């Protein structure tokens, strides 16, 4: 059994005080949930403020990005060691917004994943096709390229901690959601690519999350699919009640 992961990507929202207020609201709502791994990903400036607030909860802390060097003349970047120092245990890598607005490529994603793993961070590795790619029938081609490019050079042992998040770009923040069938088809395909790269055992163990306008009213259908192991949640993670409802999808 793969333990589900529900991760909240707060994107460019929440100051320190706002983040602390959200954790104060969220923590009691997910208390006692031990069959789901819960992760929140605030902006860099908020990270160091949250470990104390999360102490005694089962909520893990993620960063939204990372750089591949430990230190150096890289203005504006943050290294894996610095994220660990700030209290993070996970990091989102290759989100479509990073790819779209900030020039992220499969090659830079690969370097970041390797750096995160070396730095003892759990990568949440994002993949997903654009609307143009889906309409052109290229969904599987794009996903295969992204998975192979992002994970190139890893051994099965190195790959083991990685979490994959499939987010069709056309469903992020648009209110559109892939149907359960579309999402399951993509997840099963990605698991097949992992099997070819690292073997069936690794493919059976890897957790693949769905992202893209996940809300309390659609999470149950998505989570009923055989190859969907959780969700990467955007807007609905910014309010404690809605995020807690997603975390408690099985109740």
From TrEMBL:
GO BP term (any one): glyceraldehyde-3-phosphate biosynthetic process
Signal sequence annotation: none
Record-linked Pfam families: TIM
Positions with a binding annotation for substrate: 9-11, 173, 213, 234-235
A single cellular component GO annotation: cytosol
Single Gene Ontology MF annotation: triose-phosphate isomerase activity
Reactions catalysed, as given in the entry: D-glyceraldehyde 3-phosphate = dihydroxyacetone phosphate
Gene3D superfamilies: Aldolase class I (3.20.20.70)
EC number: 5.3.1.1
Primary localization class, coarse: cytoplasm
Keywords (A to Z) from UniProt: Cytoplasm, Gluconeogenesis, Glycolysis, Isomerase
UniProt function note: Involved in the gluconeogenesis. Catalyzes stereospecifically the conversion of dihydroxyacetone phosphate (DHAP) to D-glyceraldehyde-3-phosphate (G3P).
HAMAP family for this protein: TIM_B (MF_00147_B)
Subunit field text: Homodimer.
Official protein name in the record: Triosephosphate isomerase
Organism of origin: Geomonas paludis
